[in-house]
């Protein structure tokens, strides 16, 4: 299996970096081929601007989606973006690894998504009609590939529980799971989340590392998050609202987009 890890932590000697070493060791032990995009080490450019589109004149107005589509089709996107796109096409499984900062991924990783997910590559693909609304949410270029998050956070697991003050971890990660991974077609696995990492001693890290090794060993067997596919009949097109008869009493918000016993 080909595995791409996109690593977004500024300190390679951090606990997050140590978990990367654990993941790499186990992946290699299992015989997988691995590439790592260490964004900070690469000095990854995080902002989208005119420089991303060589065919755009300095005086031209930048319309990101339109220009992204045009230059992707013309194979004229910048070399760093094209290299990351090639890695995504090569990979069978993609792992995004990062610390949870201010309830989100670090800006450098969001910038990787902004630039690499070009129109025509990760979005803006497929038929748009009365029966389909593009190849997205379970379909698209990444269909058939698996994806998972490895996340570290300083907060307690209880802080990220259903009644925790930070909100449920699944809700906080929903924009990444559903919007960044499932949208272009990835099959999304439950995340590996390490809590209270600033207070981790050797004994706690040993347990954490064993848990991560088990997740790595079972990448192909772990049941994915059961998101509803867009074009499978669960949503009205073009409003993209869930059909009323698939809703359950008391289920709302992000949970609506999970398969339930009725749907």
From TrEMBL:
GO terms for molecular function: NAD(P)H dehydrogenase (quinone) activity. One of its GO terms (cellular component) is cytosol. Residues 1-214 form the Flavodoxin-like fold domain. It holds the Pfam family Flavodoxin_2. Coiled coil: none annotated. InterPro entries: Flavodoxin_fold, Flavoprotein-like_sf, NAD(P)H_dehydrogenase_qn. Keywords: Oxidoreductase. It comes from the Bacteria. Belongs to the NAD(P)H dehydrogenase (quinone) family. PANTHER family: NAD P H OXIDOREDUCTASE-RELATED, NAD(P)H DEHYDROGENASE [QUINONE] 1 ISOFORM 1. This is NAD(P)H dehydrogenase. It comes from Gluconobacter albidus.
